[in-house]
Amino acid sequence: MANTSDISRGMIIKLDGSLYTVVEFGENKTARAAAKVWAKLKGVDNSRSIEKTWNSGDTIYPVRVERKTYQFLYKDDTGYNFMDSETFEQIALAENLVDAPQFLKDGQEVSVLINTETEQPMSVELPDKIVVKVTYSEPGLRGDTATRTLKPATVETGATVNVPLFVNEGELIRINTKTGEYVERVKE
């Protein structure tokens, strides 16, 4: 057990029978009343986002989480299949546990968060930025870099990303997996 002074960003806590990760937190102090601690929480085992306020010093229930490196193998009707990079043990997870499934490539390394109490996988996180190849895009115009106009492009994972006009088919681009946005072009 811990109290509200132990809250940190990224911590996973148990609240009303569900698990939440702390996205943001802070403290409100007033002259007369006791200090309050607030946190924005995102559901790990559900898709809810909530805000919670505690009195300073209240008990919270953190969950110990282990982060393991797994490799994405393939997707089938059982779900997304991953292999532990050390033990070569394979697991299949449902799509709702995967952070950004549209950007998964065969053989890609991901982090799987595992609840140490139950040994159950809780979520799969892709790296913040990944490099993918553009498989289809309308032809770009040379020298058209002055404006911030975007066009849709299909990448090797099948996802569609908006890219600048100068990006062509066959080029490698870096994208942000959290927002799904184009970051930069990558030279081979």
From TrEMBL:
<dbReference type="GO" id="GO:0003746">
    <property type="term" value="F:translation elongation factor activity"/>
</dbReference>
<keyword id="KW-0251">Elongation factor</keyword>
<feature type="domain" description="Translation elongation factor P/YeiP central">
    <location>
        <begin position="67"/>
        <end position="122"/>
    </location>
</feature>
<dbReference type="InterPro" id="IPR015365">
    <property type="entry name" value="Elong-fact-P_C"/>
</dbReference>
<comment type="similarity">
    <text>Belongs to the elongation factor P family.</text>
</comment>
<dbReference type="Pfam" id="PF09285">
    <property type="entry name" value="Elong-fact-P_C"/>
</dbReference>
<dbReference type="InterPro" id="IPR012340">
    <property type="entry name" value="NA-bd_OB-fold"/>
</dbReference>
<comment type="function">
    <text>Involved in peptide bond synthesis. Stimulates efficient translation and peptide-bond synthesis on native or reconstituted 70S ribosomes in vitro. Probably functions indirectly by altering the affinity of the ribosome for aminoacyl-tRNA, thus increasing their reactivity as acceptors for peptidyl transferase.</text>
</comment>
<dbReference type="InterPro" id="IPR014722">
    <property type="entry name" value="Rib_uL2_dom2"/>
</dbReference>
<dbReference type="InterPro" id="IPR013852">
    <property type="entry name" value="Transl_elong_P/YeiP_CS"/>
</dbReference>
<dbReference type="InterPro" id="IPR011768">
    <property type="entry name" value="Transl_elongation_fac_P"/>
</dbReference>
<dbReference type="InterPro" id="IPR001059">
    <property type="entry name" value="Transl_elong_P/YeiP_cen"/>
</dbReference>
<comment type="pathway">
    <text>Protein biosynthesis; polypeptide chain elongation.</text>
</comment>
<dbReference type="Pfam" id="PF08207">
    <property type="entry name" value="EFP_N"/>
</dbReference>
<feature type="domain" description="Elongation factor P C-terminal">
    <location>
        <begin position="130"/>
        <end position="185"/>
    </location>
</feature>
<protein>
    <recommendedName>
        <fullName>Elongation factor P</fullName>
    </recommendedName>
</protein>
<dbReference type="Pfam" id="PF01132">
    <property type="entry name" value="EFP"/>
</dbReference>
<dbReference type="InterPro" id="IPR020599">
    <property type="entry name" value="Transl_elong_fac_P/YeiP"/>
</dbReference>
<keyword id="KW-0648">Protein biosynthesis</keyword>
<keyword id="KW-0963">Cytoplasm</keyword>
<dbReference type="InterPro" id="IPR013185">
    <property type="entry name" value="Transl_elong_KOW-like"/>
</dbReference>
<dbReference type="InterPro" id="IPR008991">
    <property type="entry name" value="Translation_prot_SH3-like_sf"/>
</dbReference>
